[in-house]
Design goal:
168 residues, 2 strands
């Protein structure tokens, strides 16, 4: 969380800081999942270890696959669902910079209703300026996004701890 909070005080443009904040969150989630795999009793069998080794990179490809392995593989449910939705909104904003050069991508705008919903949520929840496909992230938008990411990390860590208690 300190790494996420530090993003707010660094002297980088808000769009770059947003990309860094999402990457930091992604690294935390991936590390958490890796630790869950490493502690899994499945690692104790040769077959389990082989299967985990073969599939471990697959969960890192999308947020959906990360959440699926947490939920289905480790019974880790991040609650409330709005925390996950906010994370995905911040990721969508980051994707506009990482993959769309500051504009919503073709994938993000392929569905008219989804694109309008995304534009609305970016404005309403993140206070991002949206002009057509272009988006502008301000320092206010960045602060909101980082708070959302911190809340997500806290919820993830709490869900992992709760799942661990349930299996004891």
């Amino acid at each position: 969380m300190r790494r996420l909070a530090r993003v707010l005080v660094e002297s980088v443009p808000p769009a770059s800081a947003l990309t860094l904040a999402v990457a930091t969150t992604e690294a935390h989630v991936d590390t958490t999942i890796q630790q869950l795999f490493d502690l899994s009793s499945a690692r104790k069998s040769r077959l389990g270890d082989f299967l985990i080794g073969r599939s471990i990179s697959a969960f890192k490809q999308t947020w959906s696959s990360r959440h699926q392995v947490l939920r289905d593989g480790f019974d880790v449910a991040i609650e409330p669902q709005t925390v996950v939705q906010n994370l995905l909104l911040v990721v969508d904003a980051r994707n506009a910079f990482a993959h769309g050069d500051g504009a919503l991508t073709d994938i993000q705008t392929a569905s008219w209703s989804r694109a309008n919903e995304l534009r609305r949520d970016l404005r309403r929840k993140l206070h991002v300026t949206v002009a057509g496909r272009s988006i502008i992230v301000t320092s206010e938008s960045l602060a909101i996004a980082v708070r959302m990411l911190i809340v997500y990390v806290i919820a993830l860590d709490a869900a992992v701890a709760a799942a661990g208690r349930d299996t004891d």
